[in-house]
Amino acid sequence: MMNSLFTIVVIVQVLSALVIIGLVLLQHGKGADMGAAFGSGASGSLFGATGSSNFLSKSTGIAAAIFFSATLALSFFANKHSVGGGVMDNLPAVSVSPPATVSPSTGSAPASSAVSSASTPASNAASATQGNQIPK
Questions:
Q1: CA dist 105 to 36, 102, 108, 110, Å?
Q2: How many domains, in total, are found in the chain?
Q3: Which of the two residues, 5 and 108, has the higher pLDDT score?
């Protein structure tokens, strides 16, 4: 019951947002008055010379009120059904094993689990300090 009501409110919000976009695009801006002064006039308008501003403004206000009320309803539903943890808390725990190393010459994993290293810990520390120095 509550899930279907949530879906209906989301649909109402999306439709009201699309209606607001359409109504705003239909309205004339402040610069349209200058074009009317030079002869383009309101002869080509959809609602005639005077009817568009009041109708479109009131329709935009009604659509905005519906949009804001749908937004408040969605925030109410989200607050009422909040889960204590995040999304990652609901995932099952998975243990990750280290990947097997592949020998480049044979293409298979080596028989021993020890990985040979070309550098010693002392040379690793020396290279780390050299890498942190900034050249002048």
A1: 80, 9, 8, 10
A2: 1
A3: 5
Host domain of residue 45: 13-24+40-81
Residue 131 lies in a domain: no
Residue 117 belongs to some domain of the structure: no
Looking up tokens 């002048």 gives 136
130 occurs within a structural domain = no
Average pLDDT in the chain: 73
Residue 20 has pLDDT above 80, yes or no: yes
In a domain, 33, yes or no: no
The span from the CA of 114 to the CA of 64, in Å, is: 67
Residue type, 16: S
User: Among candidates 135, 13, 136, which has minimal Cα distance to 74?
Assistant: 13
CA contacts within 13 A on the Cβ side of 69: 10
Task: Please give the Cα distance from 63 to 23 (Å, whole number).
Answer: 9
